[in-house]
Every structure is written in structure tokens, then in C-alpha cells.
Amino acid sequence: MRLFTHAAAGALALAAAALCAPAQAQDWSLEKAAEPLKGTQINVVFLDRPGYRAIIQLLPEFEKKTGIKVNYEIVPYESSREKQVLNFSSNGDLTIALVDLVWIGEFAENGWIVPVEKFTSDPAITDPKLNLDGFFPLLLDAFGSWGGKVYGLPFDNYSGLLFYNQCMLQEAGFDKPPETWQELYETYAPKLTDKAKNRFAFALQSRRGETQSADSFMRVLWPFGGSLLDKEFKSNLLSEESQAGLKFRQDLMQYMPPGIVSYDHAEAVNALAQGQVAMITEWSAFYSTLIDPATSKIVDCLAVAPEPSGPAGRLPALGGFSLAVAAQAPEKEQKASWLFIQWATSEDIARAYVEAGGVSGRKSIYEDADIKAKYKFVEPMVASWQKGVPEFRPRFPAWPAISEIIAEWGTKMMLGEVSTEQGAKEIGTRMEDILAKEGYYDGKKALLQ
Which residues form the signal peptide (predicted)? Predict the structure, then answer.
């Protein structure tokens, strides 16, 4: 079963068109393209995360060059989808959609976002150096593509990595991080946990919501060979492999801080940064927070490695967002939004974006020797993007409703209110009810996108 679209060929075709279409390619500039759009205002939702703070830092350059005003509102991740859906449903003022990889199906099928082919066919507003092939194919495919079309360009890009305090590991007698989840649990965790001193081996961000469903629950399925759904789109959570992953999470909790079910990304990152925990599996985007002396006490001790392997292999988490033009925006605002999206994800500003704390989706920036040497997260992250990952989170339109169910019962599992078997059964029944109502079992909807 494949839940990621495979739009690589389409992306390459679009890239070729973008490169070849403008007859006056050498004359194109962002400033010239924006001349008819000066004074236009565009609106977008941002998150309080490093990648967004990085682009905000660079915004004056775009606004100065174009005369286009970018209005942004910073909202918590947990309410960002709902806020956008309400805006699109009421024909509001958002001109750009911030699209999580699991929202792409919902946003595209509801007609809330516009395929980029509308804009790449217009040489006046499309940079001849757009080069869609310059993105990691996995990211363009997973974050911005649906139904064989590209809708958005990868902007805030994540790979799951193991961040660890090498000083704490060395004090415990370890000269390298754990290679496997079992090794982390059996060998490392007991020696790195001292509850009397409020020190713990590991923290797994697990707050109820998308953090629970995606960053905690789903993270332990794939390495153990489990999955949310089987090939018939029926629940696979009672399989031996899925149960092994969920039970492992329950066992590992004894080496996590109390109240781990209330930890979001910020709390998990801060626990490592303050020396409370020795290891976390977190998104690559949080590297800049962990090396900032203003927020981290472990700058000199921070090290990064790939996520541990499980019985099914090394299958790291994949997450991230794309920026897409909102269909509700008037034509002028759509063009201005497209110019901003191209600029924000371009190869031209990739270095500045990375140095400001963002994680670019462009391949070329990570080929620079100084970038690889300066940023410890680059090599394990790029390695995880080269070969791809399994369907870490389904991207179909029904995901938001299913995510709420997983968040509820996944939390109950962690709190010990239900067993992993009981929780899996409850999730499976409710999930299949949603998919049945959505038409996934009667041929109304294609299972593969």
C-alpha cells in the first residue's frame, strides 16, 4: 500500500517547463515580476517554530524587493489546521495555505489550494530558476503533491533524528548512541535514569492531539513492522508487529519524565536542553533551538544521530509542510503569493534560511562542505531523505478525524487506562467507521494517491 503520491515525473516535467518557457529568462527578476503587484498584501499562518522564525527574519528582504506586504499570524500547531479550514470554508482572507503532509489530501480535494501548473505556465511570475527537481523528491512528493499534481512547495521540512547529550552518555560509560530501540531500552535507559535526581534517559513528545497521534503513536509502529492500516485499508493495530511497537512504548515510559503525556515538542526539546533527559527523537528543525546558548545548557554536549532501528529496520519519522496558493484569494493576491512561495523555498535564499535556523528542502545547500561541517543534523537528515520512508502518516482527507481518535485512545494507553489491545480495538473500530462513511470500502474513493 502506498499512501504517498509519486509525482516525481510530473514534477520533473513542471521543472522543465519552468526552465524552458520564458523566452526572456535572462531578463526575469523578482523585482520586475512584482512591479504590477506593488502594494498587494498577502496573508499566511505561521507556527512558533525555528523555520518560521527564520523566514520572518528574512522577510524584510522580500518586502523591499517586491513591495508586497506579507501579513502572518503565529498560531499553535494544534489549532493551525482548524483555523485555516474555517478561513477557507468561510471564504476568508488567507491567500497562502500552510499544508502539513497529512492535510494535503483534504486541502486539495476540497479545492482550497491551487495546482502550481497554473502559475508555472505564466513566465511573467515564474522564476526560470524555480527548478522543482532541486527539491528532494521525497519532500516534493510527500508534502506538496496529490493526485499526480503538485500543489505546494516544501517549506518547513523535518526528518526524525536522535538528539542526545553525549556528555551524559559518556558519564554513563557509552561512547556512541544506541543503534536500536531495544538497545536504548535494555542497555542505555537503566544507566541514564536517576529518578532521585530528576534525570531520565528519554522523552517522547506525546501531548494529546497531533503530537500524540503522529509524533508518539505512529513513531513506534513502523520500526517494529506495524502500521495503522493493512492493504485493504482495515485496521492493522492488533497485528503482532503493531502491538510490539505500542507495548514497547509502554515499557519505555518508566525511563521518561513523569507527565510525559503532556509533553509537546517544546517540552521535550527543553528537557534535553536543560539536561533533564539524555535523548529525544525529534524533528531536525529543532536543532537551532538546541545549539542556542540562550535556550540550551548542552550546546557543547549536543550530538545528533539517525533514529534507532527497530526489528523492521531504520524507519525514521517524516514530517513537514508545504506552502500553497489559496484558491479563495483574488487573482492579484494569488500571483503575489506565488512570488512569495517561490522566494521562501528558493535555492537563492536556502543558505540564509538555514543559517537563520530553518531547514531547506533544497538538495544543493546540503552539498556545501561548510554547511555539512557546521550543522550536525545535516548528514543523518539527508540520508533519511535519500531512500525514503514508509507511509509514516496517511495523507488521505480522513486523517484529521482519525488523528483525533488516535490522540484520545493513544493517550489512554499511555496513562494505563486501557491496554494496548483495548486501545487498538477502539481505534480500529472508529477508524473503519470513518473510512466506510468516506466511501473507502465501496469504490467511491481510490485507496491510492
Answer: 1-25
Please list, in sequence order, all residues whose beta carbon lies within 8 angstroms of the beta carbon of residue 321, skipping any fewer than 6 positions away: 98, 99, 100, 101, 143, 154, 155, 156, 157
Mean pLDDT of all residues belonging to the chain: 90
**Three cell numbers, residue 158:** 523535518
Tell me: the pLDDT tens digits for 336-367? 999 999 999 999 999 999 999 999 999 999 99
Q: Please give the CATH topology (third level) of the domain spanning 8-157+319-387.
A: D-Maltodextrin-Binding Protein; domain 2 (3.40.190)
Residue 80 in 3-state DSSP? helix
Confidence (pLDDT) at 443: 62
Burial of 153 (0-12, 13-18, 19+ CB in 10 A): buried
CA distance 68 to 148: 31
For residues 288 and 126, is the Cβ–Cβ distance under 8 A? no
Pick the closest to residue 254 from 182, 166, 190 (CA basis).
190
Q: 519519522: which residue's cell?
A: 317
pTM of the model: 0.81
Each domain of the chain, given as residue ranges in start order, spans 8-157+319-387
Distance of alpha carbon 363 from alpha carbon 315, whole angstroms:
21
